Amino acid sequence: MKKIKLFLVIGLVLSVFVLIIGCSPTTATETTQAAETTATETTQAAETETTDEWVSTGPNGEPAVSFKDANLVLTDEEKETIKKENYGATFMWFSGHVFFDAIESGAKSVFEDLNIDVVGSVDTGVDVAKVKDNIETLLALNPKILMALALDPVSASEAFRSAVDAGLQLSFLSNVPNGYKLGEDYAGVVGDDNVGMGLACAEMMSEALGGKGKIGFLYGDMGMWVTEQRDGSFKKAIQEKYPEIEIVAEAGIADYSKANEIIAGMLVTNPEIEGLYVVTDNAMGGVLAALREANRQDVKVITIDIGLESAIDMAKGQNVYGIVADYPYQIGEAMAMCSVYGILEKETPAFVTVDYFKITKDNLLDGWKKSLMSEPPNELKSLFE
To answer: Cβ distance 276 to 215 under 8 Å?
Structure first.
């Protein structure tokens, strides 16, 4: 099959997400087994609560099943059944970010073992016409699998219908198009323990401020259940568990390119702010710029997902105190396996999640490796030499 990679960069939309994880059965890869062990150990170390009050659910209230407990495995016979068909797979999300690069790497590790070729990749969006056009581009490559991010569940319901009708096995990252049924319209959905991640952010904020202080709250305002769960969990934990930490300013953000402007205004209006919660690393460029421009290196920042700029800031001992990271490589493996299960007409859990863990300067380099399953870039490693 002819390989193609289309980069249809959609400026505003790109900022919206990035939110925005029988016979000799085998797991996706040996690497995943090691990563799962690490994930379990680090999550236990985080000591976050696991009562019903702090349990994540899927986009439609589905019970969450961890990647490890989902036990997505294939028998030798099933693997041979897939291998002989020479299927093609496609991706539809955002290019050029380490998070999605790691997801693709995880998926490819599964596909390579099953003789599945990645034949195309396009950027996603919320505009129905553009998403439909992109899907038609992928359908022309005759794939069997589509792994995708559906930013807007409402518009995605129409946009992805042609892929469903064409018989593709769809696996989604976090969001599911409205009205779609598991096992009929899509093969699986994989995401994070969003409630746990928000709770972990609150714990790290308390650590950063010594248990008391005034903070700003930058939450996602694009109507995505992912950010709503994370942000809501953080706010609830601060209010209920840390009474000496006060949220004195809060603002919603849908276009992450506006982060500088929003935080600059927040600091002027509330100069007493000592800490900031930032919904996702994708807003961190503007947040850090605003803090630098205001000469506020005293403000401690907690965010979700690891990115290079935040990691460099943390390594330099500046604003970023803590990052709550997940395992996108495992997300890719899980999504790939869900689609393969769909081909084999095997059932998958309604909502598969990956673990999370805390990153501070002390475990930053190891945290990068654990989360992204890749070596930290030299510009980051050099700060520890």
So the answer is: yes
